[in-house]
Structures are given as C-alpha cells and as structure tokens.
Amino acid sequence: MIVRMHDLPRPEIEAARQAITLLGGPVKAAARLGVPRYQTVQSWSRHGVPTEYCAAIERELAGAVTRAHLKPHAWRRIWPELADLQPTEQGV
Fold it and tell me: Which of 2, 16, 23, 92 would staple 29 via disulfide (CB 3.0–4.6 Å)?
C-alpha cells in the first residue's frame, strides 16, 4: 500500500476543519473573521489556517480551538508569550 503525505493525518488540518464548523461554516466564518472571500476559508480545510487568523479564531471560539491546535508544530515559535502557559491551558 502506498501512503502519500497528503493522506497522513495532519492535526492542523483537523483543527482548521473543526474551527470552520464551530464558526458556522465557511461563509459565516469569513464574515466573523473579516475574511473577504468565503472561498479563502474553504481552502483552510485543505491547507491550514494562515497565522494571521489564528488568534481571531481562538478568540471567536473562546478557546475551543486554540492557536496551538491550529499551528501545533510552530506555535511556540510564532507566539513565544504562550510558551510559558501550561500545555493543558493551550489544549496541547
């Protein structure tokens, strides 16, 4: 069996999909986050959320999906101020 990289589970993609669902779908998510085109939000379910929207998603969802969920491999580097928080506080 051949396993392609895009077939492997990617936690940031699952987090993006969960965030879009919790925000009410791509159209409502775009409106709530100030994204000009809902198609941009749709693309996040395949490519992940751009860093510039992660904090807004965390705020809009009251922490149900965090920046650490959306950027699990890089959140400490991107937001070093969060690195002092306990892992359970970030949901990771």
Answer: 23
